[in-house]
Amino acid sequence: MDFKNRDVISIKDFSKEEINYILNYTKKMVPYAKGEKHTDILREKILSSLFFEPSTRTRLSFESAMNRLGGRVIGFADPSATSQKKGESLADTIRMADSYADAIVIRHPQEGAARLSTEFAESPVLNAGDGAGQHPTQCLLDLFTIITERKKIKGNKIVLLGDLKYGRTVHSLAYALSLLGAELTFVSPESLKMPKEVINECKEFGVEPSSISNLERAVKDADVLYVTRIQKERFPDAEEYNRVVGMYKVDIDLLKHAKEDLIIMHPLPRVVEIDPEVDKTPYALYFKQAFNGVPVRMALLSLILGGKKL
Fold first, then answer.
1. Tens digits of per-residue pLDDT, 76-99?
2. What's the rounded Cα separation, in Å, for the pair 126 and 302?
3. Which of 112, 130, 154, 231 is deepest in the core (most CB within 10 A)?
């Protein structure tokens, strides 16, 4: 398959076969991501990292991935220190970054900003999250985590919990999980339900997601519990946020209702939705999940920038 110079804007831009190809190639990247093996297949390549919105895991894992492949990273994590502060347009920022690097990774608070950026860049653009829109590389690392732990995705009962309205991670993930044959259950406050358009996309793949409010009942038969933060920054109304924050919490008492081999995932950061006591249990996979961002992004960067395959 030819991924050279491909943009990565939405998981919907990839076929089932392409997704499986990326996930299989990611397995080869794991020892390199851990520093157990070394490579410089992207030597002389430069990644421009443009983060207009706060990030820890996504930004650092992209940088780690590029460095592990022998490439270099330029960019910023604070737009207030750039010419955006002087009124420079996104288009002009992208044009300049394009002239300095071989690929651009961008996180932006406005939905659609990543796709818009492709109109001004000749180099490939990778979407690191655009508002409440898409987060395709997070989706890929989530899929890789599930496959690594559960051996497959098809037939797994997966519960998506929390902010399903504004959560870009679950929008991408619900689509991909349906494409790959998982069974889905949505648990959220009434005001934060999964958008109808996402549910309709799931149905197009023959998946009929169920929506319930009782977390204990949802967890009872779950193979994967995917928890999301109630995102204060996405709410137009602070009072609405205060009404729903803390409505659901994953703690030791809840896990008494769970299967022994349940895995708990979270895109992080977490606030109050997972009790730290859960970290000590075999259910907790979210820190390993975060590490998986490195080999997944190494695989993508290698394929897109045309490095020799490992």
1. 998 887 887 788 899 999 999 999
2. 13
3. 130
Tens-digit pLDDT profile for residues 161-194: 988 988 888 999 999 999 999 999 999 888 889 9
Q: What is the CATH number of the domain that holds 140?
A: 3.40.50.1370
* CA–CA distances in Å: residue 120 to residues 116, 147, 227, 250: 8, 36, 36, 44
Domain count, the chain: 2
Residues 81 and 148 in one domain: no
Residues 44 and 92 in one domain: yes
Look at residue 309 and tell me if it is in a domain. no
Residues 250 and 176 in one domain: yes
pLDDT exceeds cutoff 80 at 298 = yes
Cβ atoms within 10 Å, residue 3 = 19
CB 299 within 8 A of CB 39: no
How far apart CA 301 and CA 103 sit, in angstroms, is 9
Give the integer Cα–Cα distance in Å for 39 and 49.
Answer: 21
Active site amino acids: 57-58, 86, 107, 135
Q: Mean pLDDT, to the nearest integer, of 25-51? A: 97
> What residues make up the domain containing 85?
11-133+293-304
State the pLDDT at residue 309: 75
- Residue with the two structure tokens 């076969």: 17
Report, in angstroms and rounded to the nearest whole number, the Rg of the chain calculated over CA atoms. Answer: 19
One domain for residues 128 and 155: no
Amino acid identity, residue 305? L
Same domain for 103 and 224? no
Percent of the chain with pLDDT over 90: 75
Q: Count CB neighbours of 200 within 10 A.
A: 9
CA distances from 67 to 77, 147, 297, 301 (A): 17, 26, 11, 11
Same domain, 144 and 259: yes
